Amino acid sequence: MIANSAFLAAIAVAVLVFFLMDQLTFLVPYRRLILEQYLWVIVWSLVVVFVNLFAFFYALNRRLFLKDTGRKLAHIERQLLTPDTIVSDLSERLARDE
After folding, report:
1. Alpha carbon of 90 to those of 53, 74, 84: distances in Å?
2. 3-state secondary structure the chain
3. What span, in angstroms and rounded, lies between the C-alpha atoms of 91 and 97?
4. Which sequence spans correspond to the domains of the chain?
5. How far apart are CA 73 and CA 28, in angstroms?
6. What confidence tens digit (pLDDT) does each residue in 27-40 have?
7. What's residue 86's pLDDT?
8. How far apart are CA 60 and CA 97, in angstroms?
9. CA 30, CA 23: separation in Å to the nearest integer?
């Protein structure tokens, strides 16, 4: 889930950077001056955007893919603890572990 969120955030930042590079072509003559004076501001801004997008995608992944996980796990545990379960080997392993 973390890797997926980081990948989506990196893709979104890359798309944003390429879009801005296309829109700000009139600043090309001043590229050296801008990079000398504002490189770290640009880098930190991109890091902040990446972290915020990562947090957004991580929260979205948790909301969409981990919905009702506790209820589903409780159902599986109840099913495994019944004597006439479909997966009897797992029930036996649980009984041995307890």
Report:
1. 41, 15, 12
2. CHHHHHHHHHHHHHHHHHHHHHHCHHHHHHHHHHHHHHHHHHHHHHHHHHHHHHHHHHHHHHHHHCCCHHHHHHHHHHHHHCCCCCCHHHHHHHHHHC
3. 10
4. 1-67, 69-98
5. 57
6. 999 999 999 999 99
7. 59
8. 36
9. 15
Instruction: Tokens 């919905």: give the residue.
Output: 67
pTM of structure: 0.68
Residue 95: both structure tokens together: 């009984």
pLDDT tens digits for range 44-97: 999 999 999 999 999 999 888 876 666 667 777 777 676 665 566 666 776 777
Residue in the structure block whose two tokens are 């879009």:
19
Angle at 75 between CA 73 and CA 76, to 5 degrees: 65
In single-letter form, the type of residue at position 96 comes to R
